[in-house]
Amino acid sequence: MDIDRKKRIVGLLVVGLAAIAILPWLLTGEGYKERHLSSRIPVAPQMPEMVDIEPQSKPLQDTMEVAPVMEIKPPVVVQVDAQTAPADSDETVAEEAKKPVVGTNEPAPQLDEQNVPVAWTLQLASFKDEANARALRKQLVGAGHKVYTRRQAELYKVYVGPDLKRDRLEALKETLKNDFALDGIIIRFTTQ
To answer: pTM for this structure?
Structure first.
């Protein structure tokens, strides 16, 4: 080995020994002081003991066993013709006019194959922008109509209805065509 290489090895050993002697003195940890902060979190309360409570009232009797269900009979509607009715005073006629009229001539609603009533609705418009559909709905609700909207694909459709009588929607369609210049189509109402 040549002299330069020996000097380098000796120098490296001296530096290593000095590091071994000095580093523990420098890294004693005296320079770092950990802060011990007091906790502001209150101590958790103790859980209350579980208590079994006995009910003090008696359970109610089953009403189905006590009394049988009474059948309710439909009201009897008597139609009186103006010709055969006795002549009454004007006050009696005015009172009769205030009473609600029960329509007995209306047919029962049609049922589909699943025994669900067939209902109809009037589709008035389709919009790409939901804000336009909401504006039309607000305008129609302000006019006193039953209005709802549905999103189908990327369109927002505005409907009026539903109604069990298609002829009522036909009349409503003409009214809306005159009032709002909207020509809708009558379709079968579904809940989806």
So the answer is: 0.44
